[in-house]
Amino acid sequence: MWDQTRTVLDDVSRSRAALGLTPSETASFVFSLKEPVFALLRQKLGKDPDRLAHELWRATLLLDKLGLYTVEAFQKGREEVIGRQQQELLELSTPVVRLWEGVLALPLIGTLDSSRTQIVMESLLEEIVTSGAQIAIIDITGVPTVDTLVAQHLIKTVAAARLMGADCIISGIRPQIAQTIVHLGLELSVVSKATMADAFALALRRLGKTVVDRASERGRSDPA
Amino acid sequence: MAKGHATLIPQLLAEHEQELLRDWMEFQKKSGTLRSGQISEAELGEASRRLLSA
After folding, report:
1. Which of A89, A133, A153, A202 has the most CB atoms less than 10 A away?
2. What is the count of structural domains for chain A?
3. Is A223 a member of any domain?
4. Is B23 on the interface with A (CB under 8 A)?
5. pLDDT band at A224 (very low <50, low <70, confident <90, very high)
6. Are residues A38 and A135 part of one domain?
7. Same-domain status, A87 and A106
8. Is the pLDDT of residue B31 over 60?
9. Between the CA of residue B50 and those of A4, A9, A34, A170, B28, what are the distances in Å?
10. ipTM
11. Cβ of A50 and B19 within 8 Å?
12. d(Cα A13, Cα A25) in Å, to the nearest integer?
């Protein structure tokens, strides 16, 4: 009986959490059963006040317990929704972009923590394997702060990429972040560039590619 | 209080399930459960029926 009751309340609470209802609106579903139950008890036991008081107390305890269970189930349902959304956001916020044959870019936006770094690392390593890239540019222009922990995360990502046969370049280190890294005495031991454009130019040079300005060349060879 | 009594609640719920369901639905509708439109009357009725018969 209780298993069945819990199943019903779990279903109701989760579906209401998904619909965006509040915990009190969800608990009201159970608490509103007091009115008809109390009315029925009064109707059946009105002539026996002792028994009526006893049954009202038992009904109150039961429905309060079920109402509280509903709130807990609602909370769990909400946490599941939030957990799923966080996971989706993490995946969306760590895209690995192919810039050129053999060159990947990983533009990071927002705070880096352990779980996000794990996803960043996995996405980057998967793409290195898939594309056979030799160079990965990790752009941290959108990372607000770099502390010891974030630096460690970056170092781990760089080391893992190296093991997969790709060199990393870190770009987008802003002046404040550069100062923080120096103040903290951190050693990133990786090539860094101020902008993604600089990092991309370096990556192309390393791969032996040259960017040619064809418009200027035409201008030189075709005097007016 | 009559501590020695076993509770009548399960028996009353079983014997008056339809009556309770009707009154409970009325009460929920009056208290505005359906007002936001997020839950339909059919969904509310089904959830209420399932809980009473559990």
Report:
1. A133
2. 2
3. no
4. yes
5. low
6. no
7. no
8. yes
9. 9, 9, 17, 58, 15
10. 0.87
11. no
12. 10
Residue A172 belongs to a domain with what CATH number? Answer: 3.30.750.24
Instruction: Answer yes or no: do B54 and A1 touch at CB < 8 A.
Output: yes
CA A120/CA A91 separation, integer angstroms: 8
Residue with the bigger pLDDT between B37 and B17: it is: B17
A42 contacts: CB under 8 Å, gap ≥ 6: A52
What whole-number percentage of chain A has pLDDT above 70?
A: 97
Q: Give the distance from residue B13's alpha carbon to the nearest chain A alpha carbon, in angstroms.
A: 8
Q: Is B28 an interface residue toward A (CB < 8 Å)?
A: yes
Closest CB from B5, B20, B31 relative to A37 = B20
Asked if B8's CB is within 8 angstroms of A45's CB, the reply is yes
Provide the domain limits for residue A75: 2-91
Asked if pLDDT for residue A219 goes beyond 80, the answer is: no
Chain A from 42 to 81: CB within 8 A of any B CB:
44-45, 50-51, 53-55, 57-59, 62
For residue A113, what are the CA distances in angstroms to A89, A116, A143, B13?
14, 5, 11, 53
Band of pLDDT at residue A129, cut at 50, 70 and 90: very high
Cβ contacts (< 8 Å) between B12 and chain A: which residues? 37, 40-41, 44
Residues A101 and A85 in one domain: no
Residues across chain B = 54
The answer to whether A27 contacts chain B (CB < 8 Å) is: no
A115 and A63 fall within a common domain:
no
The predicted-structure confidence for A46-76, as pLDDT tens digits, reads as follows 999 999 999 999 999 999 999 999 999 999 8
Does B16 contact A at CB distance below 8 Å? Answer: yes
Shared domain for A63 and A106, answered yes or no, is: no
**A197 occurs within a structural domain:** yes
